[in-house]
Amino acid sequence: xxxxxxxxxxxxxxxxxxxxxxxxxxxxxxxxxxxxxxxxxxxxxxxxxxxxxxxxxxxxxxxxxxxxxxxxxxxxxxxxxxxxxxxxxxxxxxxxxxxxxxxxxxxxxxxxxxxxxxxxxxxxxxxxxxxxxxxxxxxxxxxxxxxxxxxxxxxxxxxxxxxxxxxxxxxxxxxxxxxxxxxxxxxxxxxxxxxxxxxxxxxxxxxxxxxxxxxxxxxxxxxxxxxxxxxxxxxxxxxxxxxxxxxxxxxxxxxxxxxxxxxxxxxxxxxxxxxxxxxxx
Length: 281
Prior knowledge:
Structural class: mainly alpha
Number of domains: 1
Oligomer: single chain
Distance between the termini: 42 Å
């Protein structure tokens, strides 16, 4: 009997260790055990949000591998993002952000924009004309990337909350990744500060109890200093405070419109997300 209890206790402790696994910048994410654990986290998110059950998760050094994820049922997670992960909440945050891109159909949208730009005066021969087209492509691409990241972030917050992971972990990962990129100076998408405030405001507006409960990691606490500084400036200015409130209402309305459109989509990620959002889960 004691032996059985000991085995059960050992299994319980092992499960607890697996759930609270810790990682660092030297973690080999291509290791089979880590890929398997990545799939456990990914499946938790997928199941909690009633998304395609046949999906699997793989690690890649290529940042743009999910173009056909809707059809292949393989979601690739960029190894460059994983190096900022310290625990399972943050691993879930990276996975949820990538699923957020799939839910919002960002690959198709980006491809459409690039296709439209490529069709602009294709017969232009002068260097000046070609330079102008390249500049337009860069500006447009950056704008699309910013909007895509913003949508993927707030979608990830919903996905994480439904799967019982702490959505504030996404702020922690964004903060660390930006610090690694020289304080945001190298970020071609949303700046660190913009992304952090966007995630925090959305989480605070939709999941206030989670934000109040906090997320006690060193990187989140440092990000919180930045957040509080911004909130102090905002709260001292009635116009900025009102603008922030309107922005959250706008995000809510835009989300409802996207969810309505997703309900009509043939993209299984989009339709699943719309179903769970409309059910209020």
